[in-house]
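The protein record now logged underneath.
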Amino acid sequence: MAGLIEFNKNSIKQSISEVFDYYGYGSSAFDFIGSIGDVSASIGCRVFLIGGFVRDIIIRLAKTNHKAASLFKSAYNKPFDSHFLDLDIVVEGSAEKLARRIKENSNFKISYLNVHKKFGTVLIEFLINDMPLKADFASLRTEVYKKPGALPIVNTEKAMLENDIRRRDFTINTIALSINDDDFLDIKDYAFGLSDILNKKVKVLHERSFIDDSTRMFRIVRFEKRLGFKIECRTLKYMKSALDENVMDGISGKRITAELYLLLKENKPWIYFERLENLGILRGVYDKLEFSEESKVVFKRIYLYFKKNQADKTDKNVIADINIFYLAEILSCLKNGDFDSAIKRLNLGNRIKNRIKKIYLESEELSKSARGGLFKLKLKNSEIYTAFKGFDASSILFYLFKNSGKDGIDLNLKKMIVKYLDELMLIKPAVNGNDVKSVGICEGRLCGKILNEVMLLKIDGKLKSKDDELRYIMKKYSNGK
């Protein structure tokens, strides 16, 4: 397939320009790439775009090619899914020296620059049309992993592009694009990544890939599902062999959780966790973790609820981070000690642990109230408010996600929950403590009681304005004075 499609420089330039334009940088931002090449040449370095940006440009071009378009019609429509684009640039020479020269060049506007000497990398945030564009500059290197899961030992001495490519994760991320003047926009494909993209395969470069860095298991699932590709057969065998050797034990909980969060940010995250379950990766993290059919349903409810509320600009109900609900569902299969052990393994910390435990506890209390028939009754708005006000909003939502469609939650209860979360919990009296004191009531407990009473009347629509509220307080508690 690769031989049937020509990726000429004009089409590559046009595609990159269109992507920059789509993200608001303007098509003229393409010149920014050439400028980096010019600065690099001035200090005797060579530079190449590499990684995800190049991969997604290739996919974008394949989709517009009549010979390949039909193969990519089911692939992810927006491979460039970050809010802002990120570029990976490898430097044949010193990335730090190049970064210093770029910083000195008045043609570039830079808002941030950070050097990481140990790994020979520099992160620069450029401003193009006042929009941030991050670029990771890395000196070409070879890497050695002293033990599975450890961070690599980096050697940048005399490394060539071919050497650098061999240390990368998947062949589809190894394609480099020259931004040097003498071979500008030439494709450098030393690991047959172009062929694997066009054949929609995700493949590691060597059999020890998952042993060297087992977080690649999460990334390979992310690329497979996001791009609509398939993991290559031998790669699956290498993965299974690595899991059989318990290589995940060598990866810190912090790194694993970072990968899980990236998966949760994807479109339809349940398809990614379903794949983690099928491949045995979740059990590799903690042997009692599982992603069931019920979890899949709950994930869909969480996703659709937040997607709807994000689209609904009138929704004022801001409830915490969506990830807390996903985590609560992922961990809901665990009991007592296993829950605590999994929290520790993932390095989630006490704040998240206590929050999820509270969600579980209050969800169960809501279940008891539902089984007791409380929500079968026809309740006034103030009674709905009173029934739910003792519960954290996250707990109520999780109860809804877990129980929608079950006998324990009928349409009437769902309507009450939605009304409470979207309307009632947001209602506050117009008067405050100072207003109550201004009519001669100074006792703190009584003041709190009055404010709550006013709020319930307001919730039921009996008090419409601040004047109504003040008149009510004066009439009942100050004898109209």
About this structure: The CA atoms of residues 331 and 445 lie 41 Å apart. The first strand starts at residue 46 and ends at 50. The chain has 22 helices and eleven strands.
